[in-house]
Fold each of these.
Amino acid sequence: MREVWYDSLVHHVFIMKRRRDLREYFLLNINTVVRMMIISDTVWMGALGFLGPIFALFIVGYIEGGSAEVAGVAASIYLITKSIFQIPIAAIIDHIAGEVDDFWLMFIGSIASALVPLLYLIIHTPMQLYAVQFIYGLLVAATFPSYMAIISRHMDKQKEGSEWGIYFTLTDFSSAIAASIGGVVAAQSGFHSLIIIVVVVSLMGALLTYPIRPYMRPAR
């Protein structure tokens, strides 16, 4: 009887844990701030996934003198700019008390970043592309540290690992699905239509962070 009771208890605990894990995957056991920020970045990363894997094809097809080398330099400019400015901006964010400044920097920076791909529609030369990549890197350098600062502070205690796992799982899934859809849209309707879709979806992702504004902690 004791073994039967123990097996029943273990089975019950397993079922409850499984249900809890499933609820977390659907963001039901997560606080409002973290939930909205995960949803926002899932949409945002999906938008980037539409264009990211085939961006080099866009450069070759629509930029004068576009080549693999130009695509490599463009990617490097974005990453180097983001890397150089990210830490100084993060230090400024940490120096200013409260979360209100973090929120507005994240929100405005996300809106601006979402609009940057529109510039791809009007550029024609590698130098113009490099300038856009520099602007894009600078905006992301301002946005990413503020996003990470807010979501890190609001993670549920003792559930940080699970919530980061859910974050990366959902954003990776959205990027994977969007990559295949982006290729189809580019092939069927062209890159200009795809870029408009990227901008619209990115803006949706950015706007999804606005509901967390009342939860931001003011400076004391």
Note: Residues 1-30 form one domain.
Amino acid sequence: MKRPTAREFDQELLDIYDYYVHGQIDRRGFLERAAKFAVGGLTAVALLEMLSPQYAFAAEVPKEDLRVTSDYLKYPSPDGSGEMRGLFAKPAGAKGKLPGVVVVHENRGLNPYIEDVTRRVALAGFVAFAPDALYPAGGYPGSDDAGRTMQAKLDGRKITEDFVAAVKFLSTHPDGNGMMGVTGFCFGGGMANTLAWRLPGLVKAAVPYYGGQPSAENAAKIKATLLLHYAGLDERVNKGWPAYEAALQAARVEYEAFIYPNVNHGFHNDTTPRYDKAAAELSWSRTIAFFKQKLG
């Protein structure tokens, strides 16, 4: 199966899709606005399918990969949903305790792409843990559209507490050494920023990918070192970056930010046309090197 690329679509259509996946318009709104791009025998529905994730591509480190061991673990979240579950992964045959990285999914639950990313983190030499915010509602439903609907109905405060609890859980896991990092994508990027200020004594390194930014007041609480990845064409998220950078500078937070030119929000997600191989690979190499430097 050939993976479509962003260059095959008009940028306005990619922006409309971004509005759709982030709840700014509904499915009907997407189809109505995408209709003008439905030419040459294509329909708006077909365009939506082409732009949506194809998880056949999300198999860089498949679950059968013998280099990594993984399992679903439950953990307590007393201030959130009570009981939660996530995917835990570590290098096969690892000896000694390893630094930990919590991986936070997008606004649609723990889908195959994020599970694969979690195994990638483990393969790089960490214990990795990816909670599923949808677990209280039955877990990721197998469809991103359904997952987005489910996540939108959940209590946002509880979701935050569930991820706070996940960091605490991994920090005390017997396979970990207590050194903690977090990374996340889209919603997860915003959550990575949140976890950095919510747990300043615990999170040592945070890598948000195209994530929403906290207030200046909360940014001042961050003690972690940050590595921030933004997409050059992502006007929706990038508009919050100048104020965030000013707040980080004022608070003397150590950070490095990269804005990858001519790529879209979601450029790391290798299951959609918005994926950009060069930016994804460069950002990921920077991410792993950063975690190794900051967490050991």
Note: The chain has a mean pLDDT of 95.
Amino acid sequence: MALQQYEYGMIGLGTMGRNLALNIGDHGFSMAGFDKDISKAEALDKEAGPRNLRGFNDLNDFLTSLKRPRTILMLVPAGKAVDSIIEELKSRLSPGDLLADCGNSHYSDTDRRKTCLEKEGIRFMGIGVSGGESGARYGPSIMPGGDEQDYNRVAPMLEAIAAKVETAPCVAWLGPGSAGHYVKMVHNGIEYALMQLIAETYHVLKEAGGLSNRELHSLFARWNKGVLKSFLICISAEIFAHTDELTGKDLIDMIRASARQKGTGMWTSQDAFGLHVPIPSVDMAVTQRDMSAMVEERSIAQGLYSGTNASQLLDKEALIAQVEQALQFSTRVTYAQGTSLLYHASAAYGYGLNLAKVSTLWRGGCIIRAELLEDIRKAYEHKPALPNLLLDKVYADALQGLLPAIRNTVKCAVDAGIPIPATMASLSYYESYRREWLPANLIQAQRDYFGAHTYERTDREGVFHTHWETRSSR
């Protein structure tokens, strides 16, 4: 074995790591892969073919095989596994070596690791990667953060392997520190919300419209040729047409309706709460995954309460037209919430995010890629400092045109007893954001009444407190 022959290293040769390594090899770069599981290292060797790739399960041999200064990508589960690998590597690395975490790490962990490693002279960056197994293999959306000089070091390789939209690679340096992992976290929060909104649309069409799986397949396939064109709509169409090999039935009907989560959607909600940025569509999507897991309790509750009121249902074709526009509305509002969070987080954490750039690299490769992102890119190109897409005139006009449909869809779901909380949250967000006055004056009065928390007035400057209590309220 020739020493120091590989340009890049990859730690973690599971499905994502191996596919990304193969993608890198496809584009003419050499890479050594490491995994403690020898079968995974051997799998890379088996699939390498003519590519300049090699798998290792001995860490020292792996490190010896890399050109110096070393550039090592990591694709392992977020959390303790990343810290464990870093601890094992630290004494074996040299100043100037670069570690790049390509997993779904929490942005605060990325900042902590970067600070710690740079004390040893080791470079560190967080890189968000979206697109699942297929994206890793054939072109993901890539969201790098860290020092720009470190990005420039890996940019030729990342630009080569990234998804392309109109020949432009879906990768760009986003900002210092944990900017890349923060953008990926928000991407995942938007993903949670979009998946929930599509599931709620399915629920209404299935129960209120009586659509069969074949009709749903045809409908979603048609939607994917229009305004709603996106990766998630596309795969939903395919799911409705898939037959179960075990039973011969539609596979969608054989899947247990209890969704799991790895935490990135929850992280988005938690950070938004900390920054006081409302993202209720994402919040409801996280909540509904938790609700879906309460299968036994919901089964008991179903026996206690009445169900759908069929007399309230609409004509099928009218319902389909209405629900399509409602999904367009809630999708637009979801992207507005996510990019609003990025706007405020950029200021709070010093990322200096360019939201037009973020929108551009989300147009291909990633899970939330959609036709709509071109409209979003244009809005931020026109006004880079836009705090919320709802303040863009073109975006606002589109929402106004869709408003009757989502209001009527919510009414229909309420009458039919069908839960569509993320859709309702999207509408409520819009209704709240577009109003100058909200009833928080009563909340301030209540807070002042029971806790002397004070309030501000509309007619004069200053902070005020009132002795509210009367004899009747004692």
Note: The CA atoms of residues 60 and 92 lie 8 Å apart.
